[in-house]
Design goal:
394 residues, alpha/beta, eight-stranded mixed beta sheet, six-stranded mixed beta sheet, 14 strands, 38% helix
């Protein structure tokens, strides 16, 4: 079964064509800078790749370009769009309505639209991708996979805020959690590796960062909340902050609400602390003696360690920690910083193992560490394709 995975962002489209259940990637690529004259499109197969820079004014033209590449007589991989059985769409916010992958119909699209206010940077682009894919790949089933779905197993004690009850009942204000596709994928890999051990903390570290406490394969708590903006320190997002700071900025410093929002989401985090948003640059500067960069890395690790401690309490124990995503998989520096002085929890890493880079699941803890410390490369595209395949098969 050929399944096309589409991750439609505000100014980008990532795509991957897979054969399931064989887990064979036929082609992959992305379009970025949609809406600019210098849009960039990449297309890669096992035997060839191509890249173009051209104006792509909107998502519809972008997806049409993807279809043209898939169908290209010389370098394409299909002869007709009818070969694609399903299109799996990543949808960031599913609210409390969606706890599983679903076939898309008008009611589903309307609910995605109703959630625009909760994910204004993501859900509109996700819905646009769905609408365009329905036109171009008209014979395929359109399936939605929600970032929030994995976290819907949280109990009320974990997802409810201490605010008036009507805000939950009438306005759906609660913890939702994000990066669920990644947390689900790596936690299942870790559980399979650890066998009977089932108390796991998954740590997704990229430009966006989040953690989840997973017990017996189900999420019981997560660091992101009502939106993807709180919790850990991120590339440009502040993470957890006293809400009084928001009102102080508005009342005393003259910021508008939109300006505060822009500061906390786009000018804060590692960028606000260091002037850099790419962790590789920050690590390089820290090694040169840049005190601001060193402090920012220490702050980042400190907040992650605090959350590990909270989740050990929530889980009443710990069998394994999982590092994943761009930083989690590739930064031995951050993994070491996070796992230092955690011996009370039985967490200790092996320095040599921590330096190894691999695309495979690997164990980096020392022999005497009571907790397994794993690096598990995430594969959200596979997870989406697998969920789509399972839905259609069942």
């Amino acid at each position: 079964m050929k399944i096309l995975i589409i991750n439609s962002g505000s100014s980008s489209i990532k795509y991957q064509l897979m054969v399931m259940p064989e887990n064979e990637v036929i082609c992959s690529g992305m379009i970025d800078r949609i809406g600019l004259e210098t849009s960039n499109i990449t297309f890669k197969t096992a035997v060839a790749s191509r890249e173009e820079t051209l104006p792509i004014p909107n998502h519809k033209i972008g997806l049409q370009k993807v279809a043209n590449m898939l169908l290209d007589p010389e370098k394409g991989v299909i002869k007709s769009t009818s070969e694609i059985a399903a299109v799996g769409h990543r949808v960031v916010h599913g609210g409390s309505d969606f706890s599983a992958t679903v076939k898309i119909d008008e009611k589903v699209k309307e609910k995605i639209k109703q959630l625009f206010e909760l994910a204004p940077l993501h859900n509109p682009a996700n819905l646009e991708g769905i609408n365009v894919a329905e036109e171009i790949f008209s014979s395929a089933e359109q399936i939605a996979v929600f970032d929030t779905a994995f976290h819907q197993t949280m109990q009320e004690v974990a997802y409810k805020y201490a605010i008036p009850n009507y805000l939950l009942k009438e306005n759906k204000v609660r913890v939702y959690g994000f990066h669920g596709t990644s947390h689900k994928y790596v936690s299942e890999k870790a559980i399979k590796y650890l066998k009977d051990n089932s108390k796991i903390i998954t740590i997704h570290l990229g430009n966006g960062c989040s953690m989840a406490a997973v017990k017996d394969g189900k999420c019981i708590d997560t660091s992101m909340g009502f939106s993807p903006s709180n919790g850990l320190i991120m590339g440009t997002r502040a993470g957890d902050i006293d809400q009084s700071v928001v009102f102080y900025m508005i009342k005393n410093l003259g910021y508008t609400p939109d300006e505060v929002n822009a500061v906390l989401l786009k000018q804060s985090g590692m960028l606000g602390l260091t002037g850099y948003s790419d962790l590789r640059d920050i690590e390089a500067e820290a090694e040169k003696g840049n005190k601001e960069c060193l402090l920012a890395l220490q702050m980042n690790a400190y907040r992650i360690r605090k959350t590990i401690g909270a989740y050990v309490a929530a889980l009443n124990g710990l069998d394994g920690i999982v590092f994943t995503a761009g930083i989690g998989e590739n930064s031995s520096y951050m993994r070491n910083l996070i796992c230092t002085d955690m011996d009370y929890f039985g967490i200790e890493i092996n320095t040599e193992k921590n330096q190894i880079r691999s695309k495979e699941l690997r164990e980096i803890n020392s022999e005497k560490s009571k907790v397994k410390v794993l690096v598990v490369p995430t594969d959200e595209e596979y997870e989406i394709a697998n969920q789509v395949f399972q839905l259609l098969e069942n």
